[in-house]
Each structure stands twice: as structure tokens, then as C-alpha cells.
């Protein structure tokens, strides 16, 4: 997670509150190089919007020059989650067009984008702070109370980034995390290692990097599992539910679906079966989340 990029994303105007939320989520998941690779289903789940809406907002952010998308495919040709390169610039705060990705905008210096251009001269008709009608400037700098004796301005030296250590391996925490999500820890670790070796990635904490990788993989798997509904079991439960008066649910998915029995029972068979499949999909997703949380 990059605090600098998240802070910049919060300052940028995108023209749409949901688009701003997607941008902030990308920044929240980015590393210090501005690379972020959460899956679309994961972003949709976190932002509580549809996957199509996420894709539309990302496309809009690309057109605005705030994001560059790098498509990825696995060795067997299957699509993987894209890599989003964030090109955040605080010039967008004032409504200006953001600089192209990788460019340093004129008049901006430092991590917080403080402007040092000529337009900020303290004198003149528009910038004078001494005129009778001059509006006071708004400062976004943090306030430091000089009387607070607990403030310690001296900070320890920041840890340096390194490439993946040769002896780096999954921790027991990683193993439990993968097990709870139904992931193969060795397979995910191999993909993680190969990807970052090819990119020459450097992290301050590789344990955190792999933890984030597993979170993303779990979200992608959950979305894929929800699309692979067992239609045979679904149709069989639908038949038993409405043909047998003594039918009882046999698992958590069936318990969740049974809550909608009376509503579905008022429909004709075609509409009822279609509605039942929708509830079955929702129940499958909820049961999967409950298993992960357990």
C-alpha cells in the first residue's frame, strides 16, 4: 500500500464519485512504484459496485491519463489480472489536465506536488496578501503544536527496499491464508516469485507483498467459482424443493436458498427456475465467504 499515492488520489478530481473511489482503491493497493494489480471482481467487491462499472471507470481514468493498463496472460494463454500503472499528479486537483504518465509537470516539485511556478509569486494584483480585499490562503500542511512535548521530530532511518531474498519462503500465516481461500500455496508462491523476478521488483517487506498477492488471488478465485455454478445440483434442489412437502436443506447453500421458497413459489416454472438460479449463485458466493472467514 502506498500512502503517498493514496493521498494524491484523494486530491485528484475525476468528475465522478465512484470513479474517484476506484482510483483511490487502485492507489491503496499499489506498491511504491505505482503498480497495482487487483482483479476487477476484487475492486467491484471492495467498492460495492458492478464489475462492468469498475471497467467503465478504469477506462475513463485511462482516458484522463491517470492510469495505464498493462494486460497479462499466463503461459497457457489465459487472462490474468491486469497491472495498473498509476500516473497521479496533483495538477488535476484544480481541474487541469494531468500530465502524461511518467512526466513531471511544470511548476510541481516534491512528493506532495507543491507548486513553485511563477504564478505563486506573493506580489501582484492577483497574488498580493497585503491588499484589503485579498483572501487568506488555505494551507493543507499538518499543524504542529510547539507546546506538545510528546512530539518527537526525529525519526528512525527508513528501511531500504530489496529484491526478493534467496531464502524467502511462505510463512505459517501465508499457508493458513492460502488454505482458507482454497489456494495451492506452492503454486501461488511460484507465480509470485516468477512475476517479481521478471519485473525486478523491490519491496521493503516481502511478507506483506506475498500476503497482498494471496488476497488478490483469493478474490479472483472467488469470482471464478461463483461463475461455475453446479447447474445439475441447482436444478435437482429446485425440483425437490417444490415437489416434496418434507424437503429439508442439506447444506449451507440450500439453507440460504430456502429463504426465498415462498417468493419463488408464486412464479410460473420458467420464471421461478430463473430466479432460483440467481439466488443459488448468491448463496454459493455467500457460503464461500463464510468458509473463508471461519
Automatic annotation (TrEMBL):
Location of the region described as Disordered in the Swiss-Prot/TrEMBL record: 112-161
Top-level division of the source organism's lineage: Bacteria
InterPro entries: WH-like_DNA-bd_sf, WH_DNA-bd_sf
Cited SUPFAM superfamilies: Winged helix' DNA-binding domain
Pfam families xrefs: HTH_36 (PF13730)
Compositionally biased intervals (Gly residues): 124-134
Protein name stated in the entry: Helix-turn-helix domain-containing protein
Organism of this sequence: Morganella morganii
Amino acid at each position: 500500500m502506498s500512502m503517498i499515492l493514496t493521498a494524491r488520489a484523494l486530491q485528484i478530481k475525476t468528475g465522478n464519485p465512484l470513479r474517484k473511489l476506484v482510483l483511490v482503491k487502485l492507489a491503496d493497493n499499489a506498491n511504491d512504484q505505482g503498480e497495482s494489480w487487483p482483479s476487477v471482481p476484487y475492486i467491484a467487491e471492495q467498492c460495492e459496485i458492478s464489475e462492468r462499472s469498475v471497467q467503465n471507470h478504469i477506462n475513463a481514468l485511462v482516458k484522463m491519463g491517470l492510469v495505464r493498463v498493462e494486460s497479462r496472460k499466463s503461459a497457457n494463454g489465459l487472462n490474468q489480472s491486469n497491472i495498473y500503472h498509476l500516473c497521479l499528479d496533483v495538477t488535476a486537483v484544480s481541474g487541469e489536465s494531468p500530465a502524461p504518465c511518467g512526466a513531471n509537470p511544470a511548476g510541481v516539485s516534491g512528493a506532495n506536488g507543491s507548486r513553485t511556478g511563477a504564478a505563486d509569486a506573493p506580489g501582484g494584483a492577483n497574488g498580493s496578501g497585503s491588499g484589503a480585499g485579498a483572501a487568506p490562503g488555505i494551507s493543507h500542511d499538518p499543524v504542529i503544536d510547539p507546546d506538545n512535548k510528546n512530539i518527537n521530530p526525529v525519526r528512525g532511518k527508513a528501511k531500504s527496499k530489496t529484491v526478493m531474498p534467496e531464502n524467502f519462503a511462505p510463512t505459517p500465516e501465508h499457508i493458513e491464508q492460502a488454505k482458507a481461500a482454497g489456494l495451492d500455496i506452492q503454486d501461488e508462491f511460484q507465480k509470485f516469485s516468477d512475476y517479481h523476478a521478471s519485473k525486478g521488483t523491490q519491496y521493503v517487506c516481502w511478507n506483506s507483498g506475498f500476503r497482498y498477492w494471496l488476497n488478490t488471488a483469493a478474490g479472483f478465485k472467488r469470482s471464478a467459482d461463483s461463475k461455475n455454478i453446479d447447474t445439475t445440483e441447482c436444478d435437482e434442489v429446485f425440483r425437490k424443493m417444490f415437489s416434496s412437502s418434507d424437503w429439508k436443506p442439506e447444506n449451507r447453500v440450500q439453507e440460504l436458498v430456502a429463504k426465498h421458497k415462498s417468493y419463488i413459489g408464486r412464479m410460473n416454472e420458467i420464471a421461478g427456475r430463473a430466479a432460483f438460479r440467481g439466488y443459488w449463485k448468491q448463496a454459493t458466493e455467500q457460503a464461500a465467504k463464510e468458509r473463508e472467514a471461519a
